TrEMBL record:
The lineage of its organism: Bacteria, Pseudomonadati, Pseudomonadota, Betaproteobacteria, Burkholderiales. Its EC number is 5.6.2.3. One of its GO terms (biological process) is double-strand break repair via homologous recombination. GO terms for molecular function: 5'-3' DNA helicase activity; ATP binding; ATP hydrolysis activity; DNA binding; exodeoxyribonuclease V activity; single-stranded DNA helicase activity. It is an enzyme of class 5 (isomerase). The gene is recD. Keywords: ATP-binding, DNA damage, DNA repair, DNA-binding, Exonuclease, Helicase, Hydrolase, Isomerase, Nuclease, Nucleotide-binding. This is RecBCD enzyme subunit RecD.
Amino acid sequence: MTTLKDLLKQPWGQAHATPLTGLDTALANLLNSKQPSDDPRHLWLAALTSHQWGRGHACLDLATLQTQAAALLGWNDEQTSTLPADLHQAANTLPWTQGDASPLVLTEDTQGARLYLRRAWTAEQNIRQNIAQRLALPCDVPADLQQRLDALFTPTNNGEPDMQRLACEVAAQNRITLITGGPGTGKTTTVVKLLSLLVGTSSRDLQIHLAAPTGKAAARLTESISNALTQMPADVQARIPTQAQTLHRLLQTNSKATQLHQLATDVVVVDEASMIDLEMMARLLQAVPPTARLILLGDKDQLASVEAGAVMSQLCTGSLLQHQTVTLVHSHRFDAKSGIGQWARTVNADVADNTPALKALWNAAPDWLATLPLQQTIEGDAAEPDVTRLQLTSASDPKLAVGLRYGWRNWLALLDAHRPSKTTQTAPCSDAQAAALLKAFTEFCVLCAVREGPLGVVQLNAHVELALGLGQSAWYAGRPVMVTRNDYALELMNGDIGLCLPGPDGVLRVAFPAVDGGVRWVMPSRLDSVETVFAMTVHKSQGSEFTHVLLVIPALESPVLTRELVYTGLTRARQRLTVWAPQLGVLWNGCARRVLRSGGLGD
Ligand SMILES: Nc1ncnc2c1ncn2[C@@H]1O[C@H](COP(=O)(O)OP(=O)(O)OP(=O)(O)O)[C@@H](O)[C@H]1O
């Protein structure tokens, strides 16, 4: 058996000079201790498969490992140089992929070879089989489908096909449908029309479930379904629920039962499907009976789940659901001339180099896009951008209308009454006042690409507290907090945002938006995993929208800064976008970098 001493003599001994975690190397060593190998490349392959799983990949893509190892692993050249030569070839002799219960699974098809942890491979297989089973089952399609669609959709007068109508038609004809589109392309509007069509053709009341991966996204789905339903006749409204729940709750992933229960349902609609990871998707498909309709709504161009598997984008581009995927492209929120829409399109454009077009947009810097270019922000070292620029209070020059006090002006005005001062008593906050404060808080948000560093979330949060004169104690009136871990007892989900305020009894509590539009008060002492959230990462902002977004791009290159991240960040803005990029080159390089996610669902 290869001992640690032997290993250190071999290339495997260099693993410590790479970003491999202790878990990755421990897994490789464990496999080796159970079934020894005398080829150190086997240890590397096992550790790299674990490493990729931890980075959100379903598997280790061996073809890409051979041609683009650095990009695939997210390593620099020095780290990549520690990898032994011909690593991919050693996969064929791996001792840990043999048999039905092997810890690793090796697959090979026209796209090349892939190495999986068994749990990832099982989830992917379950997804494939479940989808195939759904597609094989006939679906009840109303005989008068076209007439019903005619009644719901007015013909377009530009001669172009109505993709919303097509999405509705496809979803009416299939047991699983993917509807993808950017912000405001009418995904919710389309799904409400579909639900009205389905309830209109059913002789009995349909069981309809609405869900989203996070509490925030579920609350937004509830709101947008309620709004879209107001356009429908009263009898249809009465038969369609508006209350969405989190996927965890729908699937009861927190329950102690080991056997996954199947839902009693006819139609399940899941929004923000790009945030669903591989194992959650497998569970969802298992829980929705094959006889029910499953409709997944999302934006395939957004960042994928931080957990493994870019499931939505792979399913949208692969052949598995090719005929069940409809892409909505026309935004009804941003017209063709809208700056945010133009930026979103240009960032996503399928061209070899989108930099010239982005630079042209940046230089034109219309009103909607306030830019803070290098010469205006930096005094001295570019790695230490001057964050005090953000304290600007007024909008005399629209290009500089990014001050924190300006962005949060309505929220600060409302908050004033509830903050203690030398002359006034702190006024307690009613539920309605707390709800208004929570709403006003989302008029502005600082989104960062990274957590650490001079322009990361941690430093910007500290800076904002200082700039707004808040934060003298751990808990203060006005402290916005984000939940960082699901808390099933309190029914708070990772990503939920609350505000610390004097509650109706005057005692400091945290108000969270309740699903019925009101608020829920929670004692600060009961909140274990929360962090201040004036600034948040783009990853955490998924499923939220803000009137005005300040998107902060770091001054130094970072592999996490990708096209998907910039797209997700800028499309969180409803009306106004400010991009602060002290080094424009870092922004252009980020927009050129694609997230590489390996997996077998995109074939
Ligand atoms: N075909 C249409 N014609 C005119 N307006 C539309 C059309 N479809 C949607 N809208 C309007 O555009 C806005 C956005 O629609 P909707 O909320 O359905 O989009 P979405 O894709 O679900 O957006 P989100 O990004 O919030 O998920 C709504 O105000 C809606 O009424």
